[in-house]
């Protein structure tokens, strides 16, 4: 899937799901930008509000002296991925002219997304109550860490802090491990997904009522909402769920097993007694597997440590690909452990990673939307914008501004 320059005509997005939807993006770091990237993937015209006076932390990195002007050294790789397919307008919100301009843009926007700490947008006079009278159809979503009400609303949140406060770090890892975080920015992506879902729901509601909505999203609550079985276990048993590591409360054996070679592994998960019999046959019906305790899941769970030793004595003599192939042929869930670079370079990598041509930075790869439609309803991928790259064209298209009016805003210090 090849993209085009971010400043190209919006006409090619006219057949997308969110064609014609204008999104004013006041987001930074990851949760908010991921949410608006999803909207851009669905065809919305996302205009990201930035400022050269306060560049986004995820959006800048030290440039080398040999880097050509306006090369992609201007942005961090994470920014390039999370903010692709958007346009950028540089507004100085510290000035009255800049804030007034932002209000004018909000007055013609369909959606406004922000993920600042509670109270920031109100202090800029860009809160929902201030903007709604001029645009009753506006869908305004705030994506702070703990929401805009309650005792935690003033707390500053980051991914690690949220993983700790939600209890997630005490639900991952094994019993003897210290609190263990999920390596990726779990809360940011979960928050971004819920934010996109909320916006789509509000757009569907607006189509019926003609009215917008004020959505107050708590990333803390988004994360906790994914704990279903753990929460149920805590409520029913009135105990803290055990940390199982790679094991399961319903399947056995389950784990990662060392294979032949340097640091090579295979993940195996035997879901039921029928799969256990197939697993035993695939291993050549070893004598130890005939123990009556192993005929049930509960029996296998009770003797899991011993089982793991026996299983690894078999897997360690084979490559992880051989173990995977053998067990898959037998109908037993098994996958060899791959490094991320192997996913990129593997035969299925083209399904996950999509290329685009950045005119000033060469070829790039990015992840796309993990689903397809029978019709062409997803927007073409486009590179992330340069800071303020579309200030003039966005003001022309959204507000009908002339060249002289834009220059006047520049003279007033509103555009930087």
Explain this structure.
- The chain has helices spanning 31-41, 77-82, 96-107, 120-123, 128-131, 159-165, 186-209, 219-224, 228-237, 273-282, 297-302, 304-315, 320-329, 340-345, 349-352, 391-399, 403-411, and strands spanning 22-26, 45-50, 87-90, 111-114, 139-144, 213-218, 254-258, 265-269, 334-336, 353-358, 362-367.
- With 416 residues, it is of the alpha/beta class.
- The radius of gyration is 26 Å and the shape is elongated.
- Helix 1 packs across helix 7 (186-209).
- A hairpin with a 3-residue loop joins strand 10 and strand 11.
- It folds into two domains: 10-226 and 348-411, Crotonobetainyl-coa:carnitine coa-transferase, domain 1 (Rossmann fold), CATH 3.40.50; 254-343, formyl-coa transferase, domain 3.
- Helix content is 36%, strand content 13%.
- The strands form three sheets. Strands 3-2-1-4-5-6 form a six-stranded parallel beta sheet, with helices on both faces. A three-stranded antiparallel beta sheet has the order 7-8-9, covered by helices on one side.
């Amino acid at each position: 899937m090849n993209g085009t320059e971010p400043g190209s005509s919006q006409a090619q997005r006219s057949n997308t799901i969110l064609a014609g939807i204008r999104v004013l993006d006041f987001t930074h770091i990851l949760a908010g930008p991921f949410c608006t990237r999803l909207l851009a993937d669905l065809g919305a015209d996302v205009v990201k509000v930035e400022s050269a006076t306060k560049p986004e932390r995820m959006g800048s990195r030290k440039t080398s002296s040999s880097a050509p002007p306006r090369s992609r050294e201007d942005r961090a790789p994470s920014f390039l991925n999370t903010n692709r397919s958007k346009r950028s307008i540089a507004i100085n919100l510290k000035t009255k002219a800049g804030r007034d301009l932002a209000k004018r843009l909000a007055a013609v926007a369909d959606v406004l997304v922000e993920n600042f700490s509670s109270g920031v947008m109100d202090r800029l006079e860009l809160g929902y109550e201030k903007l709604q009278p001029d645009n009753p159809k506006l869908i305004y979503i705030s994506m702070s860490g703990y929401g805009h009400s309650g005792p935690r609303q003033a707390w500053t949140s980051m991914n690690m802090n949220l993983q700790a406060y939600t209890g997630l770090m005490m639900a991952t890892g094994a019993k003897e491990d210290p609190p263990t975080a999920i390596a990726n920015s779990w809360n940011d992506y979960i928050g971004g997904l819920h934010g996109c879902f909320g916006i789509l729901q509000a757009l569907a509601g607006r189509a019926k009522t003609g009215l917008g909505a004020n959505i107050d999203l708590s990333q803390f609550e988004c994360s906790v909402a994914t704990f279903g079985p753990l929460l149920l276990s805590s409520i029913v048993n009135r105990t803290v769920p055990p940390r199982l590591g790679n094991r399961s409360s319903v399947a056995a054996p389950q784990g990662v097993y060392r294979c032949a070679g340097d640091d090579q592994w295979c993940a195996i998960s035997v879901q039921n007694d029928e799969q256990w019999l197939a697993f035993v046959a695939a291993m050549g019906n070893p004598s130890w597997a005939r123990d009556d305790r192993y005929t049930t899941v509960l029996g296998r769970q009770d003797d899991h440590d011993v089982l793991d030793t026996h299983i690894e004595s078999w897997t360690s003599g084979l490559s992880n690909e051989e173990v995977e192939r053998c067990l898959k042929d037998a109908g037993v869930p098994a996958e060899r452990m791959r490094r991320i670079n192997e996913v990129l370079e593997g035969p299925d990598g083209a399904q996950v990673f999509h290329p685009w041509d950045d005119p000033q930075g060469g070829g790039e790869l990015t992840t796309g939307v993990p689903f397809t439609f029978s019709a062409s309803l997803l927007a073409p991928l486009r590179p992330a914008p340069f800071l303020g790259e579309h200030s003039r064209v966005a003001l022309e298209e959204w507000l009908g501004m002339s060249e002289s009016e834009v220059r006047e805003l520049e003279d007033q210090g509103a555009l930087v």
